[in-house]
Amino acid sequence: MIWKLLRKHVSVTQLAGFALANIVGLTIVMLAVQMATDIRPVIEDEDSFLRRDYIVITRSVTTTGALMGSPTDFSAADVADIEAQPWCGRVGQFSASEFGVEATVGLGGSGHAMRTQFFFEAIPTDFIDVNSADWTFNPNRPEVPVIISRDYLSLYNFGFATTQGLPRISEGQMEMIPLQFTLSGNGLRETLNGRIVGFSTRLNTVIVPQDFMTWANNRYGDGNTQRPQRLIIESTSPGDVAIDQYMESHNYDVAGDKTNSSRAGHLLTVATGVVVAVGAVISLLAFFVLMLSIYLLLQKNVRKLQTLLLLGYSPAEVSAPYVKIVAGVNLAALVIAFAAVIAIRAWYMPTLRALGVDGGTITTALLCGIVIMTAISAGNIFAIRRRVAALWHG
Amino acid sequence: MDTIQFRRVLPHVFAGREDTGSEIWLREVNLQRGKRYLVDAQSGTGKSSMCSYIFGYRVDYSGTIAFDDVDTRQLSVARWCDIRQRHIAYLPQEMRLFPELTVLENINLKNRLTNHKTASQIADLLQCLGVEDKANSLVAHLSIGQQQRVAFVRTLCQPAEFYLLDEPVSHLDNENNSLIARLVSQEADALGAAIIVTSVGNHLNLNYDLTLKM
Predict the structure, then answer these.
(1) Which of A41, A147, A184, A274 lies deepest, with the highest CB count within 10 Å?
(2) CA dist A167 → A106, A107, A156, A158, A357 (Å)
């Protein structure tokens, strides 16, 4: 009955205007946060299995160097020199396969299979951050887990698949594709099943567990152990300029150099910040529009509200219809804005998936929306309560 | 609540006056539960202000108004809500009905807070006062006299220790005056409540224990 009494001056147009402004502001904020969450992995190429303070290096390959027969591998002295640097923690050496590898990829139920010459490298297990259950090798039940470069997938998706009219595949699909490796050497030729456990942006190679490599090199290898072509270094002071200087002076290449991507990451942060700020300003304006609307409403109903207080209704009971309006409209705005974000995300995600990125979580954006909405509602409700309380003494 | 005490109360608007000639302003007055009081006032002497002060929605006065020795300025909002629902029943001179609601809706707006009267008791009261046929009419469509009777029924829809009636029969004839006097007396007797009536001429027909000149 209080609602019947107080609804008279409620302006649907004003509320709709507020809701619209709020939906726009909130959608912008949430979408910016969502897109930043989704796009950041593309730019920053976070590797789940390699910590950021690990550096993978190779020797630079130059034309003159190749002609002159300059070494492309690292000698024991090179390794010792790196280990002696103040910024260097541990150094791990990549070991290469000393036997022949052929990989066969079955393409689903089509019966087609792709076969290619292949190679393996391994690094000490303690440099790799991967579930140890996935990253072991048991000679009695041979199955080879591999981590491959994400570039290979991009090469397939954007080079091969696009031009040959084949379907693009995501990382998730790739991990389910049956793989077989045929290993040969020492007069043996055996086929083992393989499994992709992940993709790396910073390891530009095919990585297998060290214990598999040791086993396979013993079984198929000729015992002629090569010097490492790559090193993995744990840096004690990531970002140290001395590291760049050292690498440059020794003609070492750092794999998956972060300089460009960190610039892009910074730009993304700035762009996201600007968009979020615009959205926040719209939301803030919407907040004041609703505030104004509610104040006008309260002003028009002052006498009724005072009479209700005189009848013995509490300020909370008298505010309740307004609080419900605010909460209802704000909740609706949140739901609609969130739906809009999901819809827009569904539109851009296929493009990102083609880039091999599954996108981030939507929890962050939703949480952001909830926090903003709660703050706006709390502000509105606080103002209503205060206004009604001010009516207490005529 | 047994006593409403006035201790040298003076509306701000009369500030500076040493003697107002009033038996309430600037005096020590105790209004006791169970008694009948008439506040006989000239227009403009502050009787409606006095009601507002007692009912706690105006505080523009000096001195102290106390309920059982508790200064009413110290009462919390929650306590005031309780007082307005269960301890003091107030009929304002301007009635404060909602014209956009029906008679029954106006009455129920109060009664749903207190659950003091049943629907049939409310119907009986309306009938007794001759406005039962208006139960579902909008208050806006009622005459002032009819509105006064509806407002009176609403006032009875709560338990009380004090009935505070501000010119309750200013727009009523003698017959309705007596009806209202009888009904409020019955309620007050049943609850052991006091009745405080203000008037500028048309007194409610009660036997008063004390008449205070305002």
Answers:
(1) A147
(2) 14, 11, 10, 10, 16
The residue of chain A with its CA nearest to that of B49 is A394
| A6-42 tens-digit pLDDT | 777 777 888 888 888 889 988 998 888 888 888 776 6
Q: Do A192 and A111 belong to one domain? A: yes
Q: Higher confidence at residue A350 or residue B87? A: B87
Q: Are residues A367 and A236 in the same domain?
A: no
Alpha carbons A275 and A268: distance in angstroms, whole number: 10
Question: Do A179 and A270 sit in the same domain of this protein?
Answer: no
Closest CA to B91 of B214, B198, B212, B203: B198
What pLDDT was estimated at residue B196? 97
| A83 plus A153 within the same structural domain | yes
Kindly list the residues from chain B whose CB atom is less than 8 angstroms away from the CB atom of residue A394. 52, 57-58
Residue A111, pLDDT score? 60
Q: List CB contacts of B27: < 8 A, sequence separation 6 or more.
A: B6, B8
All structural domains of chain B, each given as residue ranges with its CATH number in brackets, are 3-213 (3.40.50.300)
Expressed as residue numbers, the domain containing A239 is: 54-257
Q: What is the pLDDT of residue A257?
A: 54
* ipTM score: 0.94
Q: What is the mean pLDDT of residues B5-13?
A: 95
Cβ B59–A393 below 8 Å, yes or no? yes
The phi, psi pair for A277, rounded to 5°, reads: -65, -45
The span from the CA of A252 to the CA of A72, in Å, is 10
Same domain? For A236 and A266 the reply is no
Give contacts of A390 with chain B, Cβ < 8 Å.
none
Q: How far is A351 from chain B (nearest CA, A)?
A: 59
State how many domains chain A has.
2
Could you say which of B84, B105, B114 has the minimum Cβ distance to residue A310?
Answer: B84
Per-residue pLDDT of A225-248, as tens digits, reads 778 888 888 877 766 788 888 888
Identify the pLDDT of residue A46. Answer: 54
Residue A389: closest CA among chain B residues belongs to which residue? B77
How far off is chain A from B124, nearest CA to CA, in Å?
Answer: 22
Which one of A239, A257, A275 terminates a domain?
A257
- Residues in chain A, overall count: 394
Residues A211 and A289 grouped into a single domain? no
Same domain, A221 and A98: yes
Residue A261's pLDDT is: 57
**Which of A226, A257, A288 corresponds to the end of one domain?**
A257
Mean pLDDT check: name the lowest of A215-229, A302-316, B46-60. A215-229
Higher-pLDDT residue of A57, A133:
A57
Mutation for B interface: A3, A7, A305, A310, most B CBs within 10 A: A310
Q: Test A5 with B98 for CB contact under 8 angstroms.
A: yes
